Each structure stands twice: as structure tokens, then as C-alpha cells.
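Training component of the fellowship. As part of building independent skills, the fellow (R.M.) carried out the full modelling exercise for a liganded target. The chosen ligand was uridine-5'-diphosphate. The inputs are recorded below so that the supervisory panel can assess the work.
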Amino acid sequence: MKLVSIVGARPQFIKCAPVSRELRKEHEEILVHTGQHYDHGMSEVFFEELAIPKPDYNLGIGSGTHGRQTGAMLGAIEDVLVTEEPDVVLVYGDTNSTLAGALAAAKLHVPVAHIEAGLRSFDRRMPEEVNRVLTDHASDILFCPTETAVKNLAAEGITEGVHLVGDVMCDAMNYNRAVAEERSRILEDVGVRPGGYLAVTVHRPSNTDSRENITAILGALGDAGEPVVFPVHPRTRHYLGEYGLLERMPENVRVIEPLGYLDMLRLMAHAKKILTDSGGVQKEAYMLGVPCITLRENTEWVETVEAGWNVLVGAGQEKIEDAIHSFSPASRQQNLFGDGDACIRIEEILTGLQGAPPG
Ligand code: UD1
Ligand code: UDP
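Fellow's submitted model of the complex:
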């Protein structure tokens, strides 16, 4: 089988690493990087650390408004698909690269397989929610990480071609956890000790593009009473600069460049708590057994909240401070995201569909 896999943003590199490794045992994979993320620390570092094959195509699309970025990707991906004539196009998650890939393929009648299908925050103001819904409705094969995702699809009338396979981020973590412990020196580099700091990521437009919200978040971090390690996404750095907040960073908050995956894993694993608005980081916190404080009003990873390991606090300073000081999960974790064999299942399902009509 010939597959074209489409990636473009940081979390997609991490997700595609284990899938690509599995698929290439039996199939031909053409890897397309849209160029949505392009800084070394947002892109190349993941290819190097995770031994992801060099992309066959880098479309070099870069940043832009949603319409311009997605539109430029759509045209460029179409050209690749016309040249390569794949049997299946594989897309990941919920970024503009995901939607462009799904749409380009669907219009050319190439079957689309969506990894991380069925996730919903039910918040259409998030660009990701629009991307998720549209991608799922353009997909023929839907690989769901959780039961909730399967139910969400059923509620929208999508029941054909749906497969519950577990979460490929669990596979990625299992593969890299010990390596991260061995190779990463991030705790030593930033000068924190295990269990003695908070790890933070913020990059959602609802937080970064609002002076009020990001100021409240930094206010709460400043009152945490312990060191805070904050690898800053370029979007966030841009707004922190614009609001003049970089120079007024609380003393206990260590602002650092975005981390590679191995450093990020080790930083999260030893944190006392994690504060984030990232989708992937909420799951990783759960898998690592670290309490997670989510700086959003909603989440698509509802299982982590129901299990008592994640609390949604939005961007109100008082609520964040309360959670920093008092949030404490009562229950033990369960295996919410599978056994780390999602990639094997995905490969088996795709192989089984070979020659059969999709769905
Ligand atoms: C994107 C995804 C989001 C995902 C996130 C992962 C969409 C709509 N959003 O958000 O779902 O959670 O990636 O990190 O697809 N920039 C750089 N260097 C880079 C990349 C970005 O400086 O390598 C800056 C640019 O100013 C750019 C801004 O960050 O305008 C935002 O980048 P973009 O890819 O549009 O969205 P993200 O916020 O990264
Ligand atoms: N991540 C990383 N370095 C960082 C911040 C995040 O390697 O500095 C990893 C994180 O561990 C997770 C993924 O990137 O695996 C999540 O990506 P992000 O938060 O950018 O996007 P989201 O998951 O919200 O779409």
C-alpha cells in the first residue's frame, strides 16, 4: 500500500514518529511536511530526536491567517497527491495542516484516514474544533483514541469506518520515556529539583491573544511560591513581547525556549504539577501521573477530568492560584489511552482494508 502522511505542526511530528515506524515495515510511506511549524525548536528537533524520516516534500507554507495558510496548503498538497497517486492519505489531530490534507484528498477521491478522530471540545470558537469536525466528516477511516471519541462521532452520524485503537501519544511516550530520563539534562540546566517546580505551557489563542488572560495567568504563576519552568511557544513569545510582559516576568518564572520532546517529557515527569492549555500535554500529564491544571474552560480530553487528575480553571487568577495550592487527585490512574499499541492496530487495520472499499 502507498500512503501519503501529512504533518506540519509540533504535536503531529510526535504522533507520526511511532506510526511511521510501524507503517514502513510493510508499506510505502511518502511523508509531507506542510511547513506550518518551521523553527528548529518547533520542527527539526523532533525529526532528529525521534528519528522521523526526512520528509519527501516540505511545502514551506509557513505562518499566515487561517484562510491563507490553509488555502496555500490545500493547493500544494493537491499537487503532491496528483503526482504520488497514493492509496490512502493519513492526517493527524486538528491543525490547519490536518484539514488541508483531508480536504485535498477527499476532493481527489483518495481515501482519508484520520488519526485522533472524534475529539470534541464543543467550542466552535477554537480553530481546532472546526478542523476536527470538518476533517472527520471528510474521512473514510477514523482512528479514535477513546470511547468518548467513538460516541462523539456516532452522535454526528458517523459510524462507518470508525476504529477504537487507543492513543498514538501513549505509544510515543512508552517508546521515549526511558530515553528521556537517560539523555535529558533539563532539570539540571534550569536548576530545579524533582518535585520542586511547576511546568507550564500556554499557546491557545484564547489565552495568548488576550492581554487580560495572559496577565492573570502570569499573576497566578508569580504567586505560586515555587519555581515555574515555562517553555514558551513562539506565538506566546510574540504576544508577551507585544504586551510588554517579558520584562515584567515574575522572578520565580523561568521563561525558556520551546523544548524538544525528550526534555519536555523529563520536565513534565518530575513536575509537582503541570499547568497547560495544550491538548497533548493534558494527556501526557495523566499518563505520567502528574496533576494537571488546565487553563481552559473546556477540554476534548474529558476522561482526564472525570478521572480526577485534571481540573479546568480557565484563565481567572484566583481559580488558578487555588488549584496550584490545593488541587490533589484522589484516585489512582487507569489506562485511559490504551496500551501503547495503537500504531500496531492502525497498521493492521490499514493492511486489512487493502483492496477492500474504505469504510
Ligand atoms: C498550531 C495549531 C494548534 C496546535 C499548535 C501546536 C492551527 C489552527 N493551530 O497553533 O492546534 O495546538 O499548532 O503547537 O493549526 N511561529 C513561529 N515559528 C514556528 C511556528 C509558528 O514563530 O515555527 C509563530 C508565528 O508567528 C505564527 C504563530 O506562531 O503566526 C502561530 O503559528 P500557527 O502554526 O499558525 O499556530 P499555532 O498557534 O502554532
Ligand atoms: N511539547 C514539546 N516541547 C514544548 C512543548 C510541548 O515537545 O516545549 C510537546 C508536548 O510534550 C506534546 C506536544 O508537544 O507531546 C503537544 O504539542 P502542543 O502543546 O504544541 O499542541 P497541542 O497538543 O495543544 O495541539
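The panel noted the following from the submitted structure. Residues 66-84 form the longest helix (19 residues). The domain at 2-167+338-352 is CATH 3.40.50.2000 (Rossmann fold).
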